[in-house]
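look at this one:
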Amino acid sequence: MKWLDFLLGRRRPLSAEQRARDLIRAVDAGGLPLNAAIVNDIARQLGLEVSSRARMEETIARIRAALGRV
């Protein structure tokens, strides 16, 4: 059945760790996340407590530190 998923373009949802790695890779390449809610969601999926008022830069730094522990 994997071939059918491939043909139909279906992909498995990315894990929280993979989403975080993609985010950090994009930030390191010079990109800026446009949606703070997505950054906060990634952080929460990694088990971090994040205030909705936290600065995005701080949250990204915490995600980076969490990936260093994984």
Summary: Residues 56-69 form the longest helix (14 residues). Residues 1 and 7 are 10 Å apart (CA to CA). The helical segments are 2-8, 16-28, 36-45, 56-69.
